[in-house]
Specification:
alpha+beta, two-stranded antiparallel ribbon, elongated, SAM-dependent_MTases_sf, 1 helix
């Protein structure tokens, strides 16, 4: 969990990136993904 939080913070701090993170839940439990685009 700490590694994922740090990853999201690093993406958020990078001015070259536009990103979103989505959390999902299903039969297998909690999951999610991040989509990041490089600007410019």
């Amino acid at each position: 969990v700490q590694g994922v939080r740090r990853f999201i913070e690093m993406i958020g701090d990078n001015p070259r990136l536009t990103a979103t993170a989505l959390q999902t839940v299903g039969i297998k439990g909690w999951d999610g993904f991040t989509l990041a685009l490089v600007n410019g």
